[in-house]
Amino acid sequence: MPSFKFPFFLFLSSLFLHSSLAEIVCEDLPHDVCAFSISSSGKRCLLETAVDEDDKVEYQCRTSEVMVERMAEHIESDQCVRACGVDRNAVGISSDSLLEPQFTNKLCAPACSHNCPNIVDLFFNLAAGEGVFLPDLCEAVLINPRRSMAEFMSSSGAAAGPGPIEAELLEGDALASVSAPGPGPDSME
Fold it and tell me: 148: which of 51, 80, 135, 141 lies 20 to 30 Å off by Cα?
């Protein structure tokens, strides 16, 4: 009498193997999980808008040119999105959000800074692009939130110029400025 246990086991193992080989391709992601996701190739996914033939605005998920070190195949959890105060439907990300005390408080809070390395890495690089070391900004926020915002504005040139450099996640050329070399979020305690 033939045993069906072994063929069933092979079938189940082939399902697990197939699911483990599934790659994250930004263009295949729905727009509600696109932002703050990282493809299998290690590149950040970005949410863009496009206008169709009927002048209707549609969201599209695209692969950026920004490589994320030591992280791939990552879709940010809803828990981290809430803890860090980010908006998954945001088109383009700017360092301007670091000037908002409510946002910075959430980003620097342990619920975000210790549990959500993808989001912290992104804003670490945005802050670095402005000449600000995110762990120092977070420490200043804990000590004196108003003073930390003033220091950030003066160190980034926001008070003197047209505003912080925006890292528009709309165009691949601007994305290269998001990933600044230097220490990553691992140095942030």
Answer: 80
Query: Region 170-187: what's the mean pLDDT?
Result: 36
- Answer yes or no: pTM beyond 0.90: no
CB 186 within 8 A of CB 125: no
Q: Which residues contact 142 (CB under 8 A, 6 or more apart)?
A: 108
Q: Say if 126 falls within a structural domain.
A: yes
Residue 18 lies in a domain: no
The C-alpha atoms of residue 29 and residue 42 are separated, in whole angstroms, by 15
Residue 145 has pLDDT above 50, yes or no: yes
Q: Are 39 and 55 within 8 A, CB to CB?
A: no
Nearest partner of 182 among 124, 135, 137, 136, judged by Cα: 124
Beta carbons of 95 and 129 less than 8 angstroms apart: yes
* Domain assignment of residue 46, given as a range: 24-187
Low-confidence winner among 90-94, 126-130, 131-135 (lowest mean pLDDT): 90-94
Residue 143, H or E segment: helix 134-143
Quick one: which H or E segment has residue 65?
Answer: strand 57-67
Encode 41-61 in three state secondary structure.
CCEEEEEEEEECCCCCEEEEE
How many domains, in total, are found in the chain? Answer: 1
Does 4 map to a domain? no
- Kindly calculate the radius of gyration of the chain based on its CA atoms and give it in whole angstroms: 20
Whether 15 maps to a domain, the answer reads no
